[in-house]
Amino acid sequence: MIAITQSGTTTDTNRAVAMARERGAHLIAIVNRRQSDIITKVDGVFYTSDGRDIEMSVASTKAFYSQITAGYLLALFMARMLGTLSRERIAEELFKLEQAPKLMQKVIDAREAIRSSAWDLVRKKRYWAVVGSGANKTASDEIRIKLSELCYKTISSDIIEDKKHIDLSSEPLILVCAAGSPDIVLEDVAKDVAIFNAHASSVAVIADEGDRRFDRIAESVIHVPRSSFPLSVILNTLAGHIWGYYAACSLDAQAGAFKAFRSSLSGIMRSQEKKGLSLYESIEDRELRRCVDDFSELFNSWRRSGQLTSMNVDTASDITLLLKYAVGKLPIEDFWSEFGEPKVTASPLDRLDMTLGRAVEELSRPVDAIRHQAKTVTVGTSRRIEAPRGLIFDALEDLSFTVENIPAKGGIALKRLQDAVLRINGYTLYAVQGLDEEGSPTERSTIRVIRKQGTAEGLRSRFDETGPLMGTKKTIVRTGDVYAGLGKSDRAPIVIVPLLNPLKTVEHLLLLHVEYDEAMDVERKKEILGEKFGDIKNLIDEYNVPWSDGYLKSLPVGLLLGEDVEVIKNMIFEQMRNS
What we know:
This protein has 22 helices and 14 strands. By secondary structure, it is an alpha/beta fold. It folds into five domains: 2-98, Rossmann fold (3-Layer(aba) Sandwich); 115-248, Glucose-6-phosphate isomerase like protein, domain 1 (Rossmann fold, 3-Layer(aba) Sandwich), CATH 3.40.50; 251-363; 391-516, Beta-Lactamase; 522-578. The strands form three sheets. A six-stranded antiparallel sheet has the order 11-10-9-14-13-12, sandwiched between helices. Strands 5-4-6-7-8 form a five-stranded parallel sheet, sandwiched between helices. It has a three-stranded parallel sheet with strand order 1-2-3, covered by helices on one side. Strand 12 (483-486) and strand 13 (493-500) form a beta hairpin.
């Protein structure tokens, strides 16, 4: 059995491998990253990356291309072992594989033509499909995943010859993967594309360079370098991935236009509010009329040319009316009646602002979130979110970790905690393995140092070699809590951050060697302690001792963060006895 996996941590894949092993199967894994769970379950491993993979997600493009290559190399190796191919033929196939980067670069260089193919087309069609024949069905499956992620659409993937047997009018935008197909197959593909065109579908075809048979029957043709299997699958997929990227960019550009108009409108409304204008005076405002008229021209051009298919019909119709109500082209009495608004407080401007917000939400396809794909959700890019900054978060980013790798409560703690950190002098990154299916430590759980930097490079760790997970680190893995304080043995100031894999279990621990800001005032210490400050104060109160914030003044930050409240209470009492 050959198991193909990206992260090596997917439960269903690993369970299938375990079941096969129990039944005596010999197992090989093609896996994208080292130190993953699957490597302990197989007899041999074919790695497709040379270290920690940062693309642990559905539709990881790098993984998909490298998995095809690895699978083909494995097939050639078996052919050599079994003697089914000559050495000359194997050498030819290896040489062909070596051309992949050069051919892929040619596709990337043609990205402007791919952009032109996608830009207007995707705005005009609500329902999409991707099709391929033979090996290109695999390309269509992979493109479909990426398109669904980027464009927030349910998209089907079908075999080309089956497509004419279903209702074509339900999916009027069809992306066809045809490059690399044999001539006899391409003749049939051309006939099917003609059928798609006859059903009023918009068709974009990925074809070989120089192939002109689709020019008159497809709305656009994307040409890629001529190649044969398996490179043809890779090139079809790459062109489709780039096409999907620009599809998302096109829809997001529309959202940007609505967002810019909403921002201008809000500025005008604030200005009107300062002037104390009534509703009727607002509608007559010249600046407002000019702003609305300029946007109306763009909006109506999109509406007339059918380029608003990704927007909800109700949203589009509401905006059409509200643009007229906003500048008095329709009587305000009809607005109150049509939208069911109370006359005293309702304004078409307020309703327009709210509806524009809805339009932005429906159209936004934040391409910058692709790098977070499928880490919090199985499929789907994240909505736009501002990443926290600061010493600790910047250090995590430098190590290719994101906020998605931090437990939610840990992210809140780190944001507060990093205000107490003057600098980071080094770090130690640990890999954690052997957790149970729920992500909890067991007696077989292990930990090992996989990277050091800065001051940590000169420090010897008992986990430079794999050892049992124990002590504070075991507690951190179990609870998912960030630890800040002093090291148990050397009393050095540290911060330990648990880091999650896509299955939301702890896979790494990051120990940061820090310097705390011991010069901070008492008020900042209270803020950084958060709820712990209340616990300390309440414990002192239990002994009928009046509380004073001054008790915290001389206590080191690392001690306040890392020690138990009982220990801190004893130190405060020691201060009182000595004063």
